C-alpha cells in the first residue's frame, strides 16, 4: 500500500521541490558573491524521469526515461549571463518569485500526501 505509484510520484515531486528550494536559497545567499552564477534544477529532466515511455522500435529516438530512471535531478549553472559589475548573475527579485512559487507547489504536494495518508489511515481503521 505504501508502495503505490501515487505516493512514489508525490515523494519524487517533493524531492524535486526540496532540491529546487535549496538551489534557490543558495542563489539568494550568494547574490553578492563575486562571479557566482545562478543555478537551477532542470524541470525537463524531472518530468522526463517521472514519465514512462518505451520505444517500440530500436530505430526510434530513445526516451530519456529509459536512461534516467531513479537518477537524481540535474542542477544547471547559468554561466552565460552577468547582471552586476562583479560577474554575478543572480536576480534577487526573480529568485524570490521563484521561491514563492516553489513554496506553493510544495505545500500543495504536502496537502495531497496528507490526503493520501489520511485515506489509508481511514481504510486501516475500518472506516472510522
From TrEMBL:
UniProt-listed InterPro entries: Flag_bb_rod_N, Flagellar_basal_body_rod_CS, FlgB
Compartments reported by the entry: Bacterial flagellum basal body
Transmembrane segments: none
Keywords: Bacterial flagellum, Cell projection, Cilium, Flagellum
Domain Flagellar basal body rod protein N-terminal: 12-37
PROSITE patterns: FLAGELLA_BB_ROD (PS00588)
Subunit structure comment from the entry: The basal body constitutes a major portion of the flagellar organelle and consists of a number of rings mounted on a central rod.
Family of this protein: Belongs to the flagella basal body rod proteins family.
Summary of the function given for this chain in its UniProt record: Structural component of flagellum, the bacterial motility apparatus. Part of the rod structure of flagellar basal body.
Protein name: Flagellar basal body rod protein FlgB
Name of the encoding gene: flgB
Amino acid at each position: 500500500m505504501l508502495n503505490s505509484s501515487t505516493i512514489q510520484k508525490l515523494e519524487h515531486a517533493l524531492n524535486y521541490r526540496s532540491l529546487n528550494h535549496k538551489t534557490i536559497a543558495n542563489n539568494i545567499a550568494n547574490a553578492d558573491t563575486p562571479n557566482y552564477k545562478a543555478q537551477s534544477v532542470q524541470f525537463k529532466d524531472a518530468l522526463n524521469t517521472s514519465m514512462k515511455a518505451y520505444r517500440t522500435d530500436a530505430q526510434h529516438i530513445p526516451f530519456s526515461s529509459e536512461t534516467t530512471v531513479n537518477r537524481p535531478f540535474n542542477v544547471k549553472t547559468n554561466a552565460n549571463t552577468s547582471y552586476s559589475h562583479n560577474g554575478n548573475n543572480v536576480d534577487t527579485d526573480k529568485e524570490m518569485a521563484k521561491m514563492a512559487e516553489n513554496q506553493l507547489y510544495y505545500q500543495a504536494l504536502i496537502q495531497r500526501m496528507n490526503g493520501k495518508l489520511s485515506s489509508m489511515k481511514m481504510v486501516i481503521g475500518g472506516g472510522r
